[in-house]
């Protein structure tokens, strides 16, 4: 989540790929609830898109590092979603009430 929350900053500084390449292999086995899985899918989706597009359309990647690709695939499989940034990630699962009581 530390990297996912910093994707815009890390893409802008051209450091996202470096940080993702050095992160440990993540495991989805500890994610228990649907909410945890949806958050993981959103975070991994944003990280993947940033990783791919960090240098613009002329320097995209063809292969993701295993430490990003494998947990993304695992979480996607568990949710029945494709391993891409989806409308379900960006809109349907990415909201909260402005007023928790309302």
TrEMBL record:
Family per similarity comment: Belongs to the indoleamine 2,3-dioxygenase family.
Entry's Gene Ontology cellular component terms: cytoplasm
Name of this protein: Indoleamine 2,3-dioxygenase 2
UniProt cross-references to InterPro entries, sorted A to Z: Indolamine_dOase, Trp/Indoleamine_2_3_dOase-like
SUPFAM superfamilies named among the record's database cross-references: Indolic compounds 2,3-dioxygenase-like (SSF140959)
Biological processes, Gene Ontology terms: 'de novo' NAD+ biosynthetic process from L-tryptophan; L-tryptophan catabolic process to kynurenine
Alphabetized UniProt keyword annotations: Dioxygenase, Iron, Metal-binding, Oxidoreductase, Tryptophan catabolism
One Pfam family it belongs to: IDO
Species for this entry: Liparis tanakae
MF (Gene Ontology): heme binding; indoleamine 2,3-dioxygenase activity; L-tryptophan 2,3-dioxygenase activity; metal ion binding
Keyword Disulfide bond recorded: no
């Amino acid at each position: 989540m530390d990297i996912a929350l910093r994707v815009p900053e890390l893409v802008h500084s051209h450091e996202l790929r470096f940080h993702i390449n050095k992160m440990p292999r993540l495991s989805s086995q500890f994610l228990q609830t649907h909410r945890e899985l949806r958050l993981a899918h959103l975070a991994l989706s944003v990280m993947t898109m940033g990783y791919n597009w960090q240098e613009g359309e002329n320097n995209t990647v063809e292969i993701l590092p295993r430490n990003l690709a494998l947990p993304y695939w695992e979480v996607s499989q568990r949710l029945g979603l494709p391993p891409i940034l989806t409308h379900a990630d960006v809109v349907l699962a990415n909201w909260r009430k402005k007023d928790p009581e309302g």
